[in-house]
Amino acid sequence: MEVSEMSHMDVKDRLLEAILPHVVFDGWSETSFRAAAADSEIVPAVARAVCPRGAVDLALAYHAAGDAEMVRRLKAEDLSAMRFRDRIARAVRLRLELVEDKEAVRRGATLFALPPHAPDGAKALWHTVDQIWSALGDGSDDINWYTKRATLAGVYSATLLYWLGDDSPDHQRTWRFLDRRIDEVMQIEAVKKKVNDNALLRPLLAGPKWALSLVKAPNRSQAPGMPGSLHDPR
Q: CA 116, 120, 121, 123: dihedral to nearest 10 degrees?
């Protein structure tokens, strides 16, 4: 297939669809990439022009597609009656439930655990948690922008690894694991609140909080105000 006949995204979408059956056997590898180009009848040079890093680019596209669908589903749901920590849990669970082939994710985790691709894996994880916070209305523009995403990245990555090894019906053990991880974060936040509310201890945090207040989030469109933790803002 000539490049003039298809757009860049069309080529990538066709390659992504074609590579998935091969990933189960050969991972996100050069072998799988070449097989995908052949199966989709895309000229190898065109496939390489669209995906210079071959299967790595397709693995990232697969992850991004999952994030996009998660955001679409979240925005279509009415989460207003939920506690905020439950909205977070819902988003993480939804992101994992959207996966049709767990082996593709397992192979992706293996790929992004390799040193050459670890930065790509970290960026993909950060994108996921940023999309979750943004979809839920995050408008923070200081250190909270980072701490919320860093905290959720820890919860999400731990839950993902647990989910990969979970064979319980409907992944019920994973969802209980997720709830425990969020509860642990909430306990930490509760301790922080007690310190902030204590007139004797509050001065100890004045210096660190002032320094952290100078940190600004990346320039991005802002949504209505949100809490600086997983606490329900109401």
A: 150
Fold annotation for 60-234: Tetracycline Repressor; domain 2 (1.10.357)
How far is C-alpha 18 from the geometric centre of its chain's CA atoms? 23
- Give the pLDDT of residue 189: 58
pLDDT band at 147, cuts 50/70/90? confident
Three-class secondary structure assignment of the chain: CCHHHCCHHHHHHHHHHHHHHHHHHHCCCHHHHHHHHHHCCCCHHHHHHHCCCCHHHHHHHHHHHHHHHHHHHHHHCCCCCCCHHHHHHHHHHHHHHCCCCHHHHHHHHHHHCCHHHHHHHHHHHHHHHHHHHHHCCCCCCCHHHHHHHHHHHHHHHHHHHHHHCCCCHHHHHHHHHHHHHHHHHHHHHHHHHHHHHCCCCHHHHHHHHHHHHCCCCCCCCCCCCCCCCCCCCC
pTM: 0.82
Helix axes 102-112, 143-164, angle to 10 degrees: 120
- Residue spans of the domains in the chain: they are 9-52, 60-234
Q: How many residues does the chain have?
A: 234
